[in-house]
């Protein structure tokens, strides 16, 4: 018989691990709530061209990694590779938000990229993202970076740092891409095959190339600072000043350009020392709303790669109280069903096995399920009007009167 396996690049999140995810999700949602961001839920499937227009057809995500297909009516659709384009699409389509107001949104869910699977790189992965629409001031950039910083801190993750850069406005960018072309014009033949194309279509991306030779050739390339207009310079300096005031450690990295086309001005990524994979990334995208058919609304946001974040979390998760009920015989089984219901009413998780098992086998099951507490009820206990309550970790057990046993269990579990 065929044994089914996970599709390559996909992963299961099993009990044991799920608790860690739930803990992180709780901390993240509590953190963004304090900044008053409200959750948006968009479909996993969108029109393929939504992503092509926003992320850019020259990007790796669009040219190599997108899951695309036609539905039965021949519509060209895609599994979302990221959340920003969908958030902007929903923002425009709903018509609920006024250009004069600030809209603060957050989202959480699976994204899909046909990437080469490796550590921290999956084909289905989860992102938690934040998008702030309508704010032009550098303080908004500061706010979203501060949220990301607070999430990392609140999860107790240490050793992260922000890489930050500016890509300038459209005019600054045009000037800068001209400078890159000029600088690399004589080195063209030495570039990797991808960068030979990039020099025509998206010269900025050459700065992000992982090829050693391209890295060497761009090592001393002039910084964008040389061509930044006054407004872009002031904007970037103000963001850096905000981070300084908040004590958020950061490095200005002049070769940080990001792999998505929609960015303008501030871009940033978060790393942990010794690992090249960013845990989270984002930036400002002042043109995207208009490019997708909306008004002229500036925006800034970020997304966290949850799998990467979770590998850094070493939280000692609180063990939630749970009781395993072991019964021997039909009468004990009925009594245990009632005790289980009573425990659940009090908010204590309770489970039992309805099949007849030996005491030894039942206790082994409880142990394997890593349940700390056991109720044991057999003929002897029924006769005496008691239950046995056992702590599986310490081995200590106590006889409790059946009457009022829920109250006593509550007391014992709490102490
Ligand atoms: P991104 O840099 O493409 O940006 O992805 C954000 C984060 O998602 C990455 O830093 C990484 O942690 C995680 N990630 C990306 N690809 C994978 C993968 N194959 N496996 C596991 N994790 C992955 C965006 O998606 C932008 N939408 C961020 C943004 C929001 N910019 C403005 N607003």
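Q: What amino acid sequence fits the structure above?
A:
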């Amino acid at each position: 018989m065929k044994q089914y396996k996970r599709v390559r690049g996909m992963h299961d999140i099993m009990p044991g691990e799920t608790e860690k995810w739930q803990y992180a999700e709780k901390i993240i949602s509590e953190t963004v709530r304090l900044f008053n961001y409200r959750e948006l839920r968009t479909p996993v499937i969108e029109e393929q061209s939504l992503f092509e227009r926003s992320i850019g057809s020259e990007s790796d995500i669009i040219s190599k990694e997108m899951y695309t297909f036609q539905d039965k009516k021949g519509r060209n659709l895609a599994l979302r590779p990221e959340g920003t384009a969908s958030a902007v699409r929903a923002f425009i389509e709903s018509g609920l938000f006024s250009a004069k107001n600030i809209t603060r949104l957050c989202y959480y869910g699976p994204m899909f990229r046909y990437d080469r699977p490796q550590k921290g790189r999956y084909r289905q992965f989860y992102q938690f993202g934040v998008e702030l629409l309508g704010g032009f001031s550098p303080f908004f950039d500061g706010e979203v970076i501060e949220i990301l910083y607070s999430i990392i801190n609140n999860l107790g993750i240490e050793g992260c740092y922000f890489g930050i850069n500016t890509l300038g406005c459209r005019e600054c960018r045009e000037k800068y891409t001209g400078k890159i072309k000029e600088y690399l014009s004589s080195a063209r033949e030495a570039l990797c095959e991808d960068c030979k194309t990039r020099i025509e279509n998206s010269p900025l991306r050459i700065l992000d190339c992982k090829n050693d030779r391209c890295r060497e050739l761009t090592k001393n390339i002039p910084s964008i600072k040389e061509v930044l207009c006054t407004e872009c310079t002031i904007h970037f300096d103000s963001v850096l000043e905000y981070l300084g005031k908040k004590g958020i450690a950061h490095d200005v990295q002049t070769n940080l350009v990001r792999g998505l086309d929609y960015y303008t001005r501030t871009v940033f990524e978060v790393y942990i020392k010794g690992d090249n994979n960013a845990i989270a990334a984002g930036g400002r995208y002042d043109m995207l709303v208009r490019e997708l058919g909306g008004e002229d609304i500036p925006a800034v946001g970020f997304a966290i790669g949850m799998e990467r974040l979770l590998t850094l979390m070493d939280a000692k998760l609180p063990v939630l109280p749970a009781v395993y009920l072991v019964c021997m015989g039909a009468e004990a089984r009925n009594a245990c069903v009632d005790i289980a219901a009573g425990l659940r009413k009090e908010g204590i998780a309770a489970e039992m096995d309805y099949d007849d098992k030996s005491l030894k086998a039942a206790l082994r099951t409880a142990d394997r399920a890593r349940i700390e507490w056991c109720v044991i009820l057999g003929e002897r206990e029924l006769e005496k009007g008691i239950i046995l309550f056992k702590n599986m970790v310490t081995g200590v057990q106590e006889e409790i009167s059946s009457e009022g046993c829920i109250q006593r269990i509550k007391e014992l579990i709490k102490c």
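Q: And what stands out in the fold?
A: The mean pLDDT is 93.
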